[in-house]
Amino acid sequence: MSCCECRNSEETARGSILYSILNRGTKRPRGHLETPAALQLCSCTSKRKLVAIRAPQLVYRAASEVLMKTFKFVKNVPCFRGLPAGDQLRLVRNSWAPLLVLGMVQDSVDFDTVETQQPSLLQRILTHSKERQQRAPTETQDPGVPVSDAEGIKMFLFKCRALRISVKEYAFLKGAILFTPEVTELECQEYIQALRTEAERALYEHVKTVHRGNMGRFGRLCAVLNTLRCMDPDTVAGLFFRPMTGTRSIDEHVLTMFFEQ
């Protein structure tokens, strides 16, 4: 039994007029099952829902403001300013996405998504060659991000706000995210490792003092850190920036905002 539902429907469709038109002039070798191109056109792939921001201009503006405010905070950290310029850029490239999402929690930035319209199998077949001819070499299509990724970020924002993170805790979390010694080609790797350890220790001491040794809260804040460190930059860019920036390099876009602060 085939694992793909489309294959069963294809057998039924082979006797139809539409199937004959689309396959006119083609020869299928005896014993041939599927070509790689045929697999790409399988309508099962459309079951992977993609979503996009419902109000991309408003969310883009809000996300940009959050990121610029975050970069301003970063540049005011003395130990960051003391790093070589190359290390600064490497750390920013690595941490902008989780820093943005954490800043959205702090500034209460929300967003709604809408499912993107995916072309049907027939539309893809009929328009495939025409689009290839008309599309510019640098033009790419951005259909959205997987709904599970978008919902994961929304749920993360909701859970973080329930923690009522304080201003000082936000600062320590940002420091622990920014100073990532695992980034390649760092000149001051050991120093950056010490800075991250110091940020995590300061967070621990703060929770211990202010929350009277509530280590359960510290554990939840550590879980926030772990989630942020696993944040996918492509998903964040696809949601908040790429609908407005298009094919422009997200790395170039982020660094432009960093240098403007």
Task: Give the strand content.
Answer: under 5%
How many H/I helices? 14
Distance between the amino and carboxyl termini: 60 Å
| Biggest sheet overview | 3 strands, antiparallel
Helix content: 55-70%
User: How many β-strand stretches?
Assistant: 3
Q: How does the overall form come out from the CA principal axes? A: globular
Order of neighbouring strands in the sheet with most strands: 2-1-3
SSE run: HHHEHHHEHEHHHHHHH
Return Rg in Å: 24 Å
Give the uncertain stretches in residue-range form: 31-47, 135-140
Structural class: mainly alpha
Calculate the mean pLDDT score and round it. 82
How does this structure look, described?
The chain is mostly helical and 261 residues long. It has 14 helices and three strands. 22% of the residues are buried.
What keyword list fits this structure?
3-stranded antiparallel beta sheet; 261 residues; mainly alpha
Task: Spell out the blueprint of helices and strands.
Elements: H1 5-13, H2 17-22, H3 36-40, E1 50-53, H4 56-75, H5 78-81, H6 85-106, E2 113-115, H7 121-134, E3 145-146, H8 147-162, H9 167-178, H10 189-210, H11 215-229, H12 233-240, H13 242-245, H14 250-260
Antiparallel strand pairs: 1-2, 1-3
Helix pairs in contact: 4-6, 6-8, 6-9, 6-14, 9-10
